[in-house]
User: Fold these one by one.
Assistant:
Number 1:
Amino acid sequence: MIELDGLTKRFGAKTAVDNLSFQVKPGLVTGFLGPNGAGKSTTMRMMLDLDNPTSGAVRIYGKRYRELREPLKHVGALLDAKAMHGGRSAYNNLLCLAQSNGIPQRRVAEVLDLVGLAPVARKKSKGFSLGMGQRLGIASALLGDPQILMFDEPVNGLDPEGILWIRNLMKGLAAEGRTIFVSSHLMSEMALTADHLIVIGQGRLLADTSMADFIHQNSRSFVRMRSPQLEQLKDVLHEAGIAPVGVPDGGALEIDGVGAEQLGELAARHRIVLHELSPQRASLEEAFMRMTADSVEYHAHAPGAPGAAIDNPARPADVPAWGAGFDAADSTRKGGR
Amino acid sequence: MAFSAVLTSEWTKIRTVASTSWTLATALLVTVAMGAGLCAVVNATFDTMPESQQIAFDPTQMSFSGMLFGQVAVLIFGAMVVGSEYSTGMIRSSLAAVPARGALLLGKLTVATALALVVGLATGFLSFFLGQALLGEHSTTLGEENVLRAVIGVGLYMALLAVFAMGVSMMLRNTAAAISILISFVLILPIVLSLVDATRKIAFYLPNQAGSAIMQTVSSPAVTSDAPYGPWGGLGIMVLWVAAAVLGGYLVLSRRDA
């Protein structure tokens, strides 16, 4: 169990994390979602007491991270793959971390084997690919067999096989009753792994909801109809009291709230030829973009009109530059370290 | 968290990077070799030296003259032990594992200082015996007054210099910046200050100038009239510098974001 209480971090005039309060519960994979620069990494660094909050606090089982005895046995974290000494072998990088927390030496070989790095255990980690570095970071997180695991963008740099592996690993760890907190900027990735979802934009909490609820609330379903007799079809629908919600392009209609069966039967009764009759579901990615685009609009008055996108979430091209405003600030911060 | 665990961990860190062995080996070899070379030259040209220099001649200190360059390697050692944690990003893993800043810093300092002390003592004794062998009839022995203190002083001096470098590096969190500043401070600033009478007295209070007094055995008129402290007093001044650097490093480590 991790609790954040009014966590705030300012860098000069910029507020990276703004009064963030939420809980991360055991037995679940909690996804931490936000566009680049939303404050995810800063939040995670504050959870580990690496960065000092401007105000607010993080409690891990009621304690500050600094108060944990042998913290690696409680919390394992992958913050970035490069948090290792490149001149040291993978084995020795993990060994010195293990020794500081009284973790037996054999555990080092175990976790290296678990992440598939056993063959390169004695190689210097500076020669590692991004994916191998990521695996080494995951190995270091698993070192103390902790109840809480935090992963910052764990699929970055992993190949498809590696992505599948980390997904299953996280699910397996959660099934053992552990607390899994994983950040991503990809909704599609979260949809596949997370049970619970915390969304932030510009450091603010935008959503704290179960994945199922998020899907239920945010994925608009509709039926797309296409016909060479478009005007006739419109009339028929009008007579039946059905108003199309959208007319996206070239003669297609989008109808909300009426099933495809009913619409098909209606068209057949009036002998209208249909070229398409397809149930559609707006993707979660689009729902997420809408959500974060709102936060950009609200705070930064981004050029363009994101309002249009809210009317029609099926067209992500309408959503202007979500998160684009803070990419620059984010890279400055990251480059500065 | 047991402090012994932190020590074990820091020992693993320091012994598993290449920079440790090459910097310390360089410190030892350069000091011994340069000292030996100069001793051989002095032995050959002793009679041509001015009488005042002959009277003030300190054969022990002469055999340590390689320290002038050897100490640079010690500074680099100290700067890299700390700086590499920042340049590689390892510091975040280190602090996640040992979030108590004081324990981490103390563990790192203890291990690196002990290592520098051992290498420093080896450097002192090797330089001394090789230097004396080459000084011929102008040589001295360990049994002479103050000589053993001076030889052990080489170890103390090198250990303190390493701690000083670690403290400065912890404040700057950057190996290259730390090395530049340390070299300017230890090698260049004393020379610059000594050029002018008005600032010469200030140079006495620089860490390496003050600390070097421990490696001298002869209280020549030149030495006693100029430096306002003895060997241990000088070392004490260096200890104050080192303590200030470590305190500064601790404050940066505990206050700033990693």
Number 2:
Amino acid sequence: MSATHVADPHHHHAVADKTQLAPEKSHLGLTRPDRHSGIIDWLTTVDHKKIGIMYGAAAMFFFLVGGIEALLIRAQLATSENHLITAELYNQLFTMHGTTMIFLGVMPLSAAFFNFLVPLQIGARDVAFPRLNTFSLWTFVAGATVLNVSWFFQFAHTVGWFGDSLTIMGADQPLSQIAPAGGWFGYAPLTGREYTGIGTDFWIVGLQILGIASLAASFNFIVTILNMRAPGMTMMRLPVFTWMTLITSFLIIFAFPAITIALAELMFDRLFGTNFFRIENGGQPILWQHLFWVFGHPEVYILVLPAMGIVSEILPTFSKKPLFGYPIIVFSGAVIGFLGFAVWSHHMFTTGLGKIATAAFSLLTMAIAVPTGVKIFNWMGSLWGGRIKFTVPMVFALGFIWMFMMGGFTGIMHSSAPADAQQQDSYFVVAHFHYVLLGGVLLGLLAGLYFWVPKIFGRMPNQKLGYLTAVLVIAGFNITFFPMHYLGLTGMPRRTHTYLGDMGWDLWNLVATIGAFILGIGVFLCFVNLAWTAVKGPKSPADPWDGRTLEWSTPTPVPAYNFAATPIVQARDCYWVHKHGDKKMDYQPDDGHGIHMPSQSWWPLLCGFGFALFGTSMAFYAAGVPFAGYCVITGLGLVVVGIYFWALEGPGGYHLEPPHDGEAAKKPTDSPVATAAH
Amino acid sequence: MLNTLEGVLNAIRINSPLSRPPTATLPALTFAQKHMTRYPRFRRLFSRLGFLLMCLWITGCSITTPQSSLDPKGPVAQKQLELFMITVWVCTLIFVLVGGALVWVVWRFREKPGDENKPMPSQGHGNPLIEIGLIGASIAFLVVIAVPTLRAIWFTHDLPEDQPYYQESKLGAYMDRGLISPEEKDNVLEITVRGWQWWFSFEYPQLGITTANEFVIPKGKVVKFNLRGYDVIHSFWLPKLGGKVDIVPGRKNWMWLMAEEEGYYFGQCAEYCGEAHAYMLFRAEVVSDEEFNDWIASYKEGAPAPAGFQMEPTDETPEPTNQDNWMAWSMANAKDPQSLLTGDPSKDAITAGAQHFFGKGKCMVCHAIDGSPAAGPSAPNLTKLGERKSIAAGILNQYTEDGGLDAEKQRENIFEWISKSHFYKPGNLMYERMDAGLIDYKYSGLTYGAMSEIGLTDKDLTSAGVSKEQLAELKEDPNAAITAVVSNQLTLRHIVERIEDNPEMMDKLASVSGWLTQKEFHELTAFLQSLK
């Protein structure tokens, strides 16, 4: 942000929290909004905290959508030879369940934490590129819309809302199977035109748009973390969550190009008749699997590492001890990220890789257990000798370690390729990755929500309900997924919409279904609790947990500018050391002209709208619907216009003057806990 | 190891207090009484739930279910299970150590009342020696898994030429010389598995036969499976004999398996392959050498001509073969179908069924029956259909507990399958592409005229969801397809269900649409069941 405030008459020396600011105008006459409340504020905001909250809200919404999909799946599988839903709908449900949970649930919830926490944890006032951050949010919303709008059209078609028009319009492709049904892994050639309808086009374009959002966000966080740290916040003083954000961002940057290429090739095959994966013309379906898993396996760590970072913050806080082996935790995170790129073919042990490749990927996969184990050892080391307080986030975090460990064990079992030949694509795998992604990642994220919600909303969640949800989620989860180990070992393949009654799978499928509903109730109550907290919860002090990192030193609710004065960091866990140790935090002197704030912008929202229009009409274009091509071009045009005017609307910005009620306003609040401990 | 597991389970079953009636069970009650005396209803609920869960656990975990990988019947599955159990034991050991330590740490260092006033815990930042020690230990545990893993990879990926059973597995060692060519005698039996949406074909290239969805192999012999795909990716998985290998179009994958016990084995496609993936099952029958030789010989002979039809010997063919019988039958059928009927109702049903197979039903366009003129290449080979213990790729079953075949059930299954295949396997190509169902899936044959002709009233239509306006529109042009007016899929489905539930209507529809009547389907069933 350059110092544009010097001669510009529109700049204000406003008092903090006042919103009467004149709109910004660039020399083109474009106006940048700078409201601080209302719907326009939320649509145009560049504040990382508000963006984080919106990511979180969207993620929770899609968790519920994905959860309903999962419950329908489980209801169908409750008994053998069940005809509750059709095979086609079942296939659409499991495709969208996987896609939704990964891309629209876990990733944006992690992004919510990145957004809200990273600037606060490194002592910055915002991310490096605030408008790019907004762009990521709205692009993500656009991608999510494109994916899920397919459900809308599917539903409309099934109940006949549009009459015959949908069927008639699909000149090149029957418009009957509209929701994606190719699996979240979209294996060619099943995703080819001969085998799946326009659902696959929705899926391709939706994922492609989500990829743009993820890449933009990742570049933003890398630049933020590397360049915007407060003085004294060296890399080895970074909070572990910020470290994991950094590693995750690098993983996204390296992993997403692979799926971008794969999706582009698939789109070309479907739309323009190229031959990347089409067998009849010499294409190689196996190529898709390599490209997909080169992305897909690092994606697992993209999902897991943020949760590991969250747990690494929570465990020390509630055992009143520093993280055991900080450098090793950070280094093992990086090693996991690196090795994550070297194990993709363990998803393909049964595709006929040959002995050497199978052996190599077997051993590399085993190797990845070492840095993962190291993390678990170090978490236990952090607890060792501490004074463990069983708060709600701590219960979730301990649940995370336990469940993640169990998922890790079955992971080791899979790494042994010949044993995996029996387990691959069976319910044993379903159990394994749900232990990692639900028992691990979701519990970690829920722990983080309960931990940081007092800072996000300035209100405390209901603790009793918190414990209840922890019990329901963990119990329901285990009742659902533990029996699946048995089901897989006795030969039940995954992605099957039903099974014969004499296979011996009825009982444990029923148990799993009951567990799924318990789990569903638990997660739902959890979100209800958090939503209630945001509106009605009792006010929280600024530092309710006796926190360790910089975000707890800010007032609650966090002011738009985060830090009235930039802190000077003197140690790892600097706020804890400030409260309990011998090194006090210091602040950069006031430069006398207030805090420079960025103005808001409409253009990222326009880009998002353009992407949504582009993606939806792209699918219809693929089906041969008339005029869809013009909508595609219009959508892309909107994106280009958005970026163009975004570049030309001028840097904007205004000044806020933090309240001058003495030094106390700048200094961190000393929590009652901290005072008592002294 | 697994025997031990079962032993333990049995011991629990016999000795457990839980096997007594619930009133006498409960040492657990003392705990419950202590803590839940205030909530007697909850107490009862809890103890009953606990009892129920224990019972479930003990009775619900059989490891010998039809598709269980924990019940290996051949060296490949055996090796894979041994390896799996190594990983289980190693992980269990780590789990006990790490999990135990975790529980202990959490319990030992929990905050107790009054702790708030104590000084802060020691602020240790880590200990490199502990870290290195634990990393070393982890690697050591992994080596325990890695070494047998590598050995097993090589064992399962190469033909077991160094194993004693390999010599006995060569075709020359157990096949009748008349059935194989001499250059094959040093090779093991090969089966080319082809995966289709959604069924398997099994070709025996050395023996010149092809079957579908059920195949037969000899006991104690190494069999090489060549896995070939043409549409989408499938996966060949026969858990009791070995883990899966994918059938990938454009790749020449293969695997070997061997069965050490005779029996009927259950397998399934394990790679998501589209709508009816769950219905892509297959079966393997493992038999003795003699039975295998007999089966091959009789398969090569082909299915006998319908209802035991025999050609009159002529000077040119004094001893008519099965093929000659079929040829004569076909010519007689072409000249005068009625002449083939004998007056014996059971025989005539078969004959009529065969006539539908080659005539009205057009089944021979896709299906082949070895020996007969039917040589359709694109659907399951039906030569020994009457011997198969399942139909529709394993969805409809007629096997009995003792490994036999329930003929009554088989008749019912075949009829259900050929007359309502889309109900049992949605999206199947017999129905989708060939319109070989009772009702054209696209409803194009379903006009208002046809519907009223078969007895579907206006009331039936409105109660299925057709609006008054739509009805009026339908009446305007009785020859227009219903889909031109009604697009709601649920309404269409309701209408079709109404017709399908009523055999009379079905027959009328058949006469309107030129498709097979119920009686004709029964005759076709009789013919198909006679193929053995």
